[in-house]
Design brief:
Layout: E1 5-7, H1 10-23, E2 32-37, E3 42-43, E4 46-47, E5 50-54, H2 57-62, E6 74-79, H3 80-85, H4 88-100, E7 102-104, E8 113-115, H5 124-129, H6 136-156
Parallel strand pairs: 2-6
Antiparallel strand pairs: 1-2, 3-4, 5-6, 7-8
Helix pairs in contact: 1-4
């Protein structure tokens, strides 16, 4: 059986740390695991370039050896095909978007780490930050879908 996920390379972790430091200093204590997703994923009819999941008790237990005593707070999954073909700027956009889903509720002792949904189809802040390339997501999805299409054709041959 093939694994669906694999560890990301160090460059991805470095980018995550850079984006977090620049845009989300309030998340500096969040423990975040980043993985590549090796399989094309769709949600509500749209291609998923990246997604984030808040861990539950089981995932925290299973990751406690990797992330200190309490395990990871979040897991970010990145489409590996997409990640490997897009520009550094688009990688930053994807990472920043996923990190924007994190909310650190300092008043909650039980579950201080939460996930927040989009405030519109995207986040208002991301639209402003991406005003130089407002169609970046469509461009990246199109490129990624084309690569998957070619891979599927090659596997049938």
């Amino acid at each position: 059986m093939e694994n669906r996920f694999e560890d990301v390379v160090q460059d991805v972790l470095d980018l995550m740390r850079e984006v977090r430091a620049e845009h989300f200093p309030n998340l500096r204590t969040a423990k975040i695991l980043v993985l590549f997703d090796l399989k094309k994923r769709r949600s509500n009819g749209k291609m998923v370039l990246g997604r984030i999941q808040r861990t539950n008790d089981l995932l925290r237990y299973l990751t406690q050896l990797q992330a200190a005593e309490e395990g990871y707070d979040y897991i970010i999954y990145l489409d590996k095909v997409c990640w490997n073909v897009v520009s550094d700027g688009d990688q930053t956009r994807i990472m920043r978007h996923e990190l924007r889903h994190i909310l650190h509720d300092i008043e909650s002792e039980r579950t201080p780490w939460k996930l927040i949904p989009h405030d519109i189809e995207d986040f208002a802040e991301e639209i402003e930050l991406n005003r130089d390339d407002i169609n970046w997501r469509s461009r990246v999805v199109g490129l990624t879908q084309e690569i998957y299409r070619v891979q599927e054709e090659e596997s049938r041959e």
